[in-house]
Amino acid sequence: MTGVVRDDDVSTFYKDVFRALPMVSFLTDRRGVILDASDTAASLLNVERRVLRAKRLLHFVARGDTRTFRKRVNDLPAAAVEPFAAALRPRHGKPCPMTMTPTIVRDGSAVLWIAVPGGAGAPAVDDLVDRSDTAALATGDPRSHVERASPSIAAESNNNQDGDPAAR
What we know:
The protein is α+β, with helices and mostly antiparallel strands. The protein is 36% helix and 20% strand. The chain is built from eight helices and five strands. Strands 2-1-5-4-3 form a five-stranded antiparallel sheet.
């Protein structure tokens, strides 16, 4: 099985990359229930990423923006929606003004939300990013990216390093 990458490994790799991206992003179902979130999103909201799963994204929208947000979720078409302003409400913190951009993904069954800080009082994305998670992206060794994102793919890659040259 040298040189074979399983679909599960690729899926895990992309999930890990999504989570480590230095931007506030959420993956929800069409009703706005969070399926996954980036580490940066969890940091902004002052919660662990696992706490976000199965909660409605609306729960983290500031009270003054809930009507707008609910309308946008209900009106989601089968394509991208225009960006709109909504403040996200962190646990034990002040609301953060954001520009929210939803995009329909997964054959229309899910929505990828990208939230960009904007407006007075918004945090800079750099203040939310844990640089230790993204440091591997700056290294010259491409294997370091894979090792941090998916240990199972890294192990397979390392096995091929000294093995059959045809498997590389």
